[in-house]
Amino acid sequence: MADGNLLFLCKTSDLQPGSVKRVDRAEGDIAVYNIDGEFYATEDRCSHGLASLAEGDLIGEEIECTMHFGSFNAKTGEPMAPPCSIPIKTFKVEVQGDGVYAVIG
Ligand code: FES
User: Fold this and answer.
1) Which atom of ligand 1 lies at the shortest distance from residue 66's CA?
2) pTM to 2 decimals?
3) Domain containing residue 17: CATH number
4) Which of 36, 51, 70, 88 could hold 46 in an S-S bridge, CB 3.0 to 4.6 Å?
5) How many domains does one find in the chain?
6) Closest ligand 1 atom to Cα of 65
7) For the segment 45-79, what is each residue's pLDDT rounded down to a tens digit?
């Protein structure tokens, strides 16, 4: 049992390996990733500007922002390519049944 609340993100079948989608949320949208069958989640907003990372390209574990082509490691949130220099927040993810959940709080 996880600490914190579980936020439903998507079904496992909604997100094929190598893909990313945005989950709208009042407190800040979340990008959820399927990397080689494992699910990860980060805040969706690029730390460099007003861009949605879910609209970018997921290459391996690297998510590239469409705005200025900076990138982050989707597993760790660490910046990988400039102009991105500030890490993005990551969320712990749990898969229960066919549901993918972020652990919030
Ligand atoms: S807004 Fe994402 S790289 Fe500039």
Assistant:
1) 2
2) 0.94
3) 2.102.10.10
4) 51
5) 1
6) 2
7) 999 999 999 999 999 999 999 999 999 999 999 99
Q: What long-range pairs does 31-39 form, CB within 8 A, spacing at least 24?
A: 31/63, 31/74, 32/93, 32/100, 32/102, 33/58, 33/63, 33/74, 35/60, 35/61, 35/74, 35/75, 39/9, 39/12, 39/15, 39/93, 39/95, 39/100
Query: Which of 44, 45, 46 for a ligand 1 pocket mutation test, highest count of atoms within 8 Å of Cβ?
Result: 46
Which amino acid type is present at position 2? A
Q: By C-alpha distance, which of 17, 26, 20 is closest to 7?
A: 26
What range does the domain containing 81 cover? 5-104
